[in-house]
Amino acid sequence: MTARIGVVTFPGSLDDRDTQRAIRVAGAEPVALWHKDKDLKQVDAVVLCGGFSYGDYLRAGAIARFSPVMDTVIDQARAGMPVLGICNGFQILTEAHLLPGGMLGNDHLHFICRDQKLRVENADTAWTADYTAGQEIHIPLKNMDGRYVADRRTLDELEAEGRVAFRYLDLNPNGSLNDIAGITNAAGNVVGLMPHPEHAVEPLIGTGRTDGLPFFTSILKKLVNA
């Protein structure tokens, strides 16, 4: 039996089908989850996909954080279930306080869409084990509110504890502090990042590379070998 990975759809989600396909390409079974349903359908892991949940009203991810499904996701994440937040999903994770810090509008005040070079900083999480620390990858990036911010104490803790998972290289596209593109919680089961690995799993699409596929093979191997 293969691993079952849930993908939550909120009103305004954009990349749920792409994420389901990426999971399928990796060899796992994608399971569609609806934001109003607290039942996670016995999945082994959850992905909060990209998009503009609730139109990004109030603040990106601020309303989605209170969707019924998030009550269960928060409880399960704190109990050790792997959870990945991509772009809007990352924003939701910070709003739910599963990850520290927050996301603000890009410093240049424009939507950005580009292939982004990243460095893998932490290859010891549930979602990054198929990478190597220091590896440089290219992942599509598309956001309006992608500027990661946190107070100095939080930034120092993230750096000291090795919890910066990915860092922007060559160009900081949105003004994120410390060039942070993604972070992990202390346990390594919750990861959030602004770039979109689901758009880089097949040579035909996205960057023309498969640099995003290890996100999904990493979690599959962890779950199968658990």
Automatic annotation (TrEMBL):
InterPro entries: Class_I_gatase-like, PRibForGlyAmidine_synth_PurQ
GO biological process: 'de novo' IMP biosynthetic process
Pfam families, alphabetized: GATase_5 (PF13507)
Residue ranges of the TM segments: none
Domain of life: Bacteria
Single GO MF annotation: glutaminase activity
SMART domains given in the database record: GATase_5
Keywords from the named record: ATP-binding, Cytoplasm, Glutamine amidotransferase, Hydrolase, Ligase, Nucleotide-binding, Purine biosynthesis
Active site positions, chain numbering: 87 (nucleophile), 196, 198
GO cellular component, one term: cytoplasm
Localization, UniProt: Cytoplasm
Pathway: Purine metabolism; IMP biosynthesis via de novo pathway; 5-amino-1-(5-phospho-D-ribosyl)imidazole from N(2)-formyl-N(1)-(5-phospho-D-ribosyl)glycinamide: step 1/2
Catalytic activity: L-glutamine + H2O = L-glutamate + NH4(+); N(2)-formyl-N(1)-(5-phospho-beta-D-ribosyl)glycinamide + L-glutamine + ATP + H2O = 2-formamido-N(1)-(5-O-phospho-beta-D-ribosyl)acetamidine + L-glutamate + ADP + phosphate + H(+)
E.C. number: 6.3.5.3, 3.5.1.2
Subunit: Part of the FGAM synthase complex composed of 1 PurL, 1 PurQ and 2 PurS subunits.
Purpose of the protein: Part of the phosphoribosylformylglycinamidine synthase complex involved in the purines biosynthetic pathway. Catalyzes the ATP-dependent conversion of formylglycinamide ribonucleotide (FGAR) and glutamine to yield formylglycinamidine ribonucleotide (FGAM) and glutamate. The FGAM synthase complex is composed of three subunits. PurQ produces an ammonia molecule by converting glutamine to glutamate. PurL transfers the ammonia molecule to FGAR to form FGAM in an ATP-dependent manner.
Protein name: Phosphoribosylformylglycinamidine synthase subunit PurQ
Highest classification ranks of the organism: Bacteria, Bacillati, Actinomycetota, Actinomycetes, Kitasatosporales
Gene from which this protein is expressed: purQ
